[in-house]
Amino acid sequence: MATPAQDLDPVLDKDGVRLTVDDAIATVTLTNPAKRNAQSPALWRALTEAGRLLPGSVRIVVLRAEGKSFSAGLDRQAFTPEGFDGEPSFIDLARGGDAELDATIAEYQEAFTWWRRSDIVSIAAVQGHAIGAGFQLALACDLRVVADDVQFAMRETSLGLVPDLTGTHPLVSLVGYARALEICATGRFVMAEEAVSTGLANLAVPADQLDGAVHDLASAVLAAPRDAVIETKALLQGAQNRDYESQRSAERAAQARRLRDLAGLGE
């Protein structure tokens, strides 16, 4: 990241989300520190749009946030009768039909799904509070680098809800069923040391070193050939749903493609 993201002209800058692109690295920044980057449907639509606007040159997407907190989670205004301006309140949604409610939640989830596309590697830089929807947004990324003041928490269950923004699958994959259940059911904080030891985070650093650590990780990923990273990411993602023999077969097929490409025999 030769040029700081904040010095670049934004590709997108609205509803608490800013997207900047510097050649192979895109940076998505949450830009409402006064509200601890609380989330809303408008912010989720902006995140979805950011994913759609990524140029084909982008290999790394860094997700970061301004201020002391990564994201304090869902803006509590969603639970008030008036909700957000121009949006149906959650109370109104609950009164609607099952199909309408399902479609609305699916639309919200789109903000959290594109980070695992096989053609990019996404890195979340997480400081301070990452609660509920904030925790799930960090979990949406491939990799997480955290500041030593990070505090993850899944508070949905404590509010009588469930985590529904795609966070349950990566959480179980990273820490296992028993610990994931305990984290969600109790709503307790997971601090930096535990995050690293359980696999929630790849690395924890002092807060003033967070940007530098993310830069180093991004540079290391960019050092490998793009097609090899894409194939490897797809291979590892599929491993969760394959048995041992099927994964062996997938490895052979992926390697055959790489060898043919390297030999100039690809399609």
Number of helices: 10
For the termini, the CA-CA separation is 33 Å
Structural class: alpha/beta
Q: Approximately how much helix is present in the residues?
A: 40-55%
User: Low-confidence parts, pLDDT < 50 over ≥5 residues?
Assistant: none
- Report the mean per-residue pLDDT as an integer: 94
Main sheet: which strands, in order across?
1-2-3-4-5-7-10
Compute the number of strand runs: 10
For this entry, give a set of tags.
267 residues, alpha/beta, seven-stranded mixed sheet, three-stranded mixed sheet, 10 helices, 16% strand, globular
Which helices and strands, and how do they pair?
Blueprint: E1 12-14, E2 17-22, E3 25-30, H1 41-52, E4 60-65, H2 90-95, H3 98-113, E5 121-126, E6 129-131, H4 133-140, E7 143-147, E8 151-153, H5 168-175, H6 177-186, E9 190-191, H7 192-198, E10 203-205, H8 210-222, H9 226-239, H10 244-262
Parallel strand pairs: 3-4, 4-5, 5-7, 6-8, 7-10
Antiparallel strand pairs: 1-2, 2-3, 8-9
